[in-house]
Amino acid sequence: MLRSVRGFTGMVGAGHTLAAAEGLAVLKSGGNAVDAAIAAAGVLAVVAPHECGLGSDMFALVYEAKTGKVHGLNATGRSPAAATLERFRDGIPESGPLAVSVPGMVGGWQEAAARFGTRPLGSLLSAAIGYAENGFPVYDVMIENAKEKAAAIKANPDCSAMFMPGGRMLTEGERLRQPALAASLRAIARDGPDAFYRGPIGKSLAAYIQSVGGILSAEDMAAYEPLWQEVVSAGFMGHTVHSMPPNSWGSATLLQLMALEREGIAAVKGNEAEAIIRGIRARKLAYKLLAGCVADPAVAGDHAREVLARFARGETTAPGKGTESRGSDTSNVIVVDAQGNAVSLLQSVFVPFGSGVLAGDTGILLNNRMRGFSTTEGDPNCVAPSKRPAQTLTPMLVTQGVGKSGGGISAALNTPGGPGQTGTLAQFLVRTLAWGETAAQAIAAPRWAMTLKGRFILEESSPADVRAAVLAQEPEVDVTPWGSVNYGSLIAFFRDGEGWAGCADSRRNAAVYGY
């Protein structure tokens, strides 16, 4: 049985216990929510390399208590300048050097620290450097992912030497040291993101990629800049829910919530099968309405925001055609501090072990974010030079009152889980805000999701009569084991009297600490 963790002063949740512990240490030593989130994210980049190493992308929402505003940070990378549709006419490979886009996460850390933090980035990376240099205990989920992606790992000698030394699988509890990664982190701590994008790391990384057949260049790295965006928001059960606009699919969660409230989801409490059926249909509707709207921000424009506004007025027309971005390996951080600031942050290499390319003496495992593009000519998300692909990452914050962010933060949440993220978040908010369940109850409940292949799935832990009723109405749904990767790993905090109550999913490695 999951239990809530409570705190009056601050809370930290992360996709690994070591990361959450470091975030808490930063809070307790006087850092704010952004400081703690970056410190935790840095540790995650070391202890969860298969999910979110330095070669990752990132989105973050920051609630600024003194202004009452929610800010959106897009730290996703662009495609190489040589990434033309003609080059990828036969498809974008799932792994290997051609799957790599510019990693945006490091630039995002610096942007967040510079705008909202109280400490320099270098000081926040000290724990991450220590875990890279001295090692951390290998754990079951990392091993399982390595087994799943063994072929991609073996295809790159440097990646294989790190994660399958001598051709063998790492064992649980074994110490994994990453000295080359530690050296890269030290350079970033000393010289800032310039070391990563315009200095020796970026140049070495690009040279390595090109030496093994990739197209990412030093010029692609040097040109990178993160992007601050206006968040998308929607009312739900007397609250306002905020997420990231395109190139994130965050708008899909908001549409699902709006549709479910309109259809009276609050009255469905206790009828699990009906709630699941309505949830699946709301997701189908949301993705239909957003077809063609989720792509690089420069291409997508305000189309997703317009869809939300039209839906709020009762219109349900779809603007165009597009493809859904799918990926499965991500890790997450949530922090609230004593001043009422909050952060919801997600970072990801896309699928487990990303491209399977570890860039030589940098120690950096690179993403396969090019797979987020389509290769359909005319699709707004079609691959093209220097373009951000559609992303499944969906950070979320909830504020009090409808139609404003200044009502005070009431909840912070996010989850990994690829294309399952938006539905998982919608289910959780239905259970908590519409049905009055605690975060622990809502996280522990059986859930449905979406796989990488576009199939709806339902956890086999659902009661037999619920499964039967759902399959009678939605026969394409597959029943799969509890905790499968696409069900995600929710972390959520809620206002609770004078303090906070938080809970972390047990479906993957995650932890919450408060004080």
Overall morphology: globular
> Main sheet: which strands, in order across?
1-18-17-13-12-9-8
Structural class by SSE content: alpha+beta
Largest sheet: 7 strands, antiparallel
Q: How large is the count of helical segments?
A: 20
The parts where pLDDT drops under 50 for at least 5 residues are none
Ends apart, CA distance between termini:
22 Å
Summarize model confidence as the mean pLDDT: 95
How many strand units?
Answer: 19
Radius of gyration equals 21 Å
Give the proportion of residues in helices. Answer: 25-40%
Proportion of residues in extended strands: 15-25%
Overview of the structural elements:
- By secondary structure, this protein is of the alpha+beta class.
- The protein has a domain at 19-228 and 331-370.
- 36% of the residues lie in helices and 18% in strands.
- The protein is built from 20 helices and 19 strands.
- The chain has helices at 17-28, 33-47, 49-52, 105-116, 121-124, 126-134, 140-148, 150-154, 157-163, 179-191, 193-197, 200-211, 218-222, 250-262, 272-289, 297-300, 303-312, 421-434, 439-444, 464-473, and strands at 5-7, 11-14, 57-64, 69-75, 136-137, 175-176, 227-229, 232-236, 239-243, 329-336, 342-350, 396-400, 409-414, 448-450, 456-459, 478-480, 491-496, 499-504, 511-514.
- Strands 1-18-17-13-12-9-8 form a seven-stranded antiparallel sheet. Strands 7-4-3-11-10-2-19 form a seven-stranded antiparallel sheet.
- Strand 15, helix 20 (464-473) and strand 16 form a beta-alpha-beta unit.
- Helix 1 (17-28) packs antiparallel against helix 2.
